[in-house]
Every structure is written in structure tokens, then in C-alpha cells.
Amino acid sequence: MIGKRLKALRIGKGLEQKNLASILNTTPQAISNYERDKRNPDLKTLNAIADFFDVSIDYLTGRTDIQKPKYLSDQINVNLEESVKEEAEDILVYLNDKALKNKKSNKTKK
Questions:
Q1: 78-95: pLDDT as tens digits
Q2: What CATH class has 2-61?
């Protein structure tokens, strides 16, 4: 999986294997081997690839199809915002219902 994703990312940036090899401080042959899944990069190189292309290692290794997941704190904030919105909507519905009942009740008293 690393090979397929690495090749797609490299081509997407318009780089040749020799250019990427130079950036990653390795050889074009090593890049070729990675892209053909003949060899896996070591952890240091894998980190360098992920950093250069701004993707996660999970994406490179095929554990996820999301190139760069949001940070956990961002996701927590999104979940909180959604939760607060839902709660506010529920409160508004409740208050509107209450106001309608009061209006009907006041009309029947007159």
C-alpha cells in the first residue's frame, strides 16, 4: 500500500523519483523499490515522507483513506459545537411550545 500511495503523492507534486530521493536523502533506487512495494522505508524515512507530503503515516500504510485527520482537539470542538447547537434547538422548540400553550390558555380565559 505504501508504494501506491507514495507514487500517487509524488506524481501529484510533479516530482520525479530522483527529486524525491534527493529531498528524502536517499537514492532513486530506494524510491523505486518503495513504490513497487519491493521494500518498505524505515521509520525515519516513513516519517520524512509523511512530513514532506503532509499526510499521516496511517494514510501511507493504508490504515485510513484520510490523508490528514483533524487533530483530536479540533474534533472535540466540532462535537461540542454540534452538541450545543442540538441542545439550543431543543430548548427553542420547548420554549416555542410553551409560548403557544400560554397563548392558547390566555385566549380561553378571556
A1: 555 666 667 767 777 777
A2: mainly alpha
